[in-house]
Specification:
heterodimer, A: about 220 residues, alpha+beta, Ubiquitin-like (UB roll), Alpha-Beta Plaits, two-stranded antiparallel ribbon, about 25% helix, B: about 280 residues, Arc Repressor Mutant, subunit A, Glutaredoxin, 5-stranded antiparallel β-sheet, 4-stranded mixed β-sheet, 8 helices, about 20% strand
Chain lengths: ~220, ~280
Amino acid sequence: MINLTINGIETTVDKGTTLLEAAQFLGLPIPTLCHMEGLTPYGACRLCVVEIGEGSRARLVTSCTYPAEEGLKVRTASRRVVKARKMILELLLASCPQSKVIQDLASAHEVRQQRFRQEYENCILCGRCVRMCEEQMMAKAIGFRGRGEQRSIGTPFDVKSEVCRTCGGCMYVCPACQLRCTYNEPERAICGGCANLSPPCIEKEKFKDMMCYMHPCVACEIVDR
Amino acid sequence: MKLQHVENIVDKHGSERGSLIAILSDIQSTYSYLPEEALRTVAQKTGKSLVDVYGVATFYRSFSLKPRGKHLCSVCVGTACHVRGSERVAHEFEQQLQVKPGNTTSDRQFTLEHVNCLGACALGPIVVVDGHYFSNVKTTEVKRIVGQAREGLDTVEVKTDQRVFPLDVSCPRCNHGLMDPENLVDGYPPIRVTISFERKHGWLLLSCLYGSFNSRSEHAIPLEATVHVFCPHCHAELSSATPCASCGATMVPMIVRQGGVLQVCSRHGCREHVLDLDGVNL
């Protein structure tokens, strides 16, 4: 068992628990984007930053990947954390402004301006789909390719993978919203992405046989008509 | 046959996690790029998923998924080289080779690429062609460097010696060419023959440069051992009626395409050889 202090609350957690899990157990809200229950933590989006340590040695770490340490003092909403988080959201919003998930997060964290050039990327490289494909779907059909500016997610050689079962899991977990346009709750059903983008699935062969998480979605309605 | 080679490379390095880069590096140096089929074979042989292999292959700059040319020109565009004018040098290379950086000329001779630092900043602008470093490169020198590379940088020293020149030989029995374009000895396609000695059987590559005694063989031939030499095409034994003048072993005759007969001694270590170019005995 490990004792640590989060926002002044003393708590005890099991060894190997991450700071994010500990904070969520206490009901402290930490926004996450690349984190997903059931998938290994990846620490790509940096949205879950928290401040650890004290004084001049205080530093920001991603809570989803940082394991709890004995006697650690964690602040989940210090001024520094909030500032960093807002900056991260602003940058995410600039790279993918059409994403409903990022829009909601930005609005919830009072990001009121967006000072950077909008890129309209399809992907924020959070790696959710890659981990979903590997860990939950046991397929390993998609992965990261290249590095730096050229880094992208896709199948090897950009051809249809033999191991892909078109389960749609990657689309289901994608927060960038290029490939997903519906939720179960009707009031959140439309992210606006599909209004500007052509739905990708209808261009696929054997569309009818495809297992799809999105059913019913805008794309299906277009085809049925 | 190509994939057999890849499989051999994988077998050599084993399929542990850390050996992937070594495997890819060997494939890259063999084919000068990573063919798609090779990556699929590596994934299959090592039990890794293709995604992982592809991810590593695309991550590192030293791996290329596109076929590279015979000669690789790397122009440094790092900070130090840049302030010393490497931009103009890089542009001059583009002009000379008529190719954009990262691409290969249509005749598959040159691949031009930009690199960010070669660690020799004091000597900038640096250009590396086929592993040969050129320092303080000026735009006026680019043409010379390209010309040198075209001639083959590794053979420049050999060529300065007038007595050394490449031969093109064929089998005296079937007249099939014995030159092996797949391999290089001394920078030239060597003469390929089949040899047998001490119940061993294999190939032997002899340098085609007259005056060079470099060779490569499948088996290590003990010094002073004589070998039986066969044509790899008609399988006839190549042996001459006249024995070696210095050691008495059998001489191996070959027809020189330009006209004439070449005879080399079949004893390993004996350097006796006769080149009779249409009666002119050298």
